[in-house]
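I had to read the description of the data format several times before I understood it. In essence, backbone conformation is discretised, so a fold becomes a row of integers matching the chain in length. I therefore recommend that a typical entry be quoted early in the introduction. For illustration, here is how one protein appears when written out as sequence plus structure tokens.

***
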Amino acid sequence: MGAVRIAILAAAAVAAILLAFIVRGMMTSGEPSEVAAPAEARPMAQVLVAKEDLAIGTRITSTMLGWQAWPVEALNPAFVTDGKTAIPPKDGAEKVAEKASQAAATLMGDNPIQAFEGAIVREAIAAGEPVTTRKVIRGGEGGYMSVVLGPGMRAVSVPVSAETAGGGFILPGDRVDVLQSREDAEGVLITETLMRNLRVLAIDQATEPAEDSNTMVGAVATLEAPAADAEVLVRGKAAGEMILALRAYTDIGGPVGRGGMAEAERQTVRIYRDGEMTEVSVQ
């Protein structure tokens, strides 16, 4: 067989193979392709959330709140919804959503945002976090001071000046000790610590310093004291001038309460005199 004939046969074989692939591709493209079924849309509800970080004591305005889409299966009965979401009857999600919408219905009027306006934040709320009735105090339920006071604590106001309040460097939120100097029965001047580690709630009517302000000079400081010890401050006011001593930030974790030496600061000394032993506590 000649070389020319072999070349012609080889070319014919290659052409046949290519033709077979082309025909197969045309036949395959004519078949309907499988299309993935679209994922079922998750039912969503509109939940009332904070549009910005809300600190404790913040008085809420309507611009601070808004609606945000929330998966129905992730709803909490405490959430406030607009009550307009159609809930499919499955997995019990409709019951949770119904309870959430009832939270909105318990508020005054049909507009939950308007109902929350003027309320005071009891617990800090982060931006995007649902607003619940548990985290706020609405009108008629108390004011700022009753919100920021801890359980079992009382707000007691004492007179101060720049000289008795750390030169004005004591600010709301700081911790202070309350000291007082007086004469004892023998006319000796003594100084004692009336209260330790009290939180300053306000200076005059200001609950926080002005922006970029490092000092506040006022005539009255409102302190947070345990209920059982509030009388100590009241007696101190009657006895004379009191001084607020600013505590270091590293010392704010100490005990809160009446003055005197803390147990950790007490040492017992034994004194022997004429064969008798006496124990005394010293600092």
About this structure: Residues 151-265 form one domain.
